[in-house]
Specification:
With 120 residues, the protein is mostly helical. The protein contains five helices and two strands; from the N terminus they run αααββαα. It folds into two domains: 12-76, Orthogonal Bundle (Arc Repressor Mutant, subunit A), CATH 1.10.10; 81-115, no CATH class. Strand 1 (65-67) and strand 2 (73-75) form a beta hairpin. The longest helix has 23 residues, at 78-100.
Length: 120
Amino acid sequence: MIVIDPQSPVPPFEQLRAQFARQIQERSLAVGTRLPTIRRLAADLGLAINTVGRAYRELEDAGLIETRGRAGSFVSAGGEQALEQARRAAHDYAAVIASIGVDPAEAVRIVEAALGLPRQ
């Protein structure tokens, strides 16, 4: 279930992208699952078609979904590859942090800032 918070400072396309990405990564949306059409999802959520289209494009650019022309958009097996790539990047980052002596808590704050997450 996708929920868009109109009061959030996070743009609607990013809320949508992040929720789909999370569902794909948590495997609650399995590889091969067909996503709603852009028009239908936009109507269901009360969003502009371009807003949903941008979220879908960013998910496709990340390898999480693939569009098959008129057949629609589907959860891609590339999502597994994206997770593995993220794991490798995290491992490399951890190695750099250890080698230069940055405190692990500070390293996490750096990542949170880079991801645009709010400070806690």
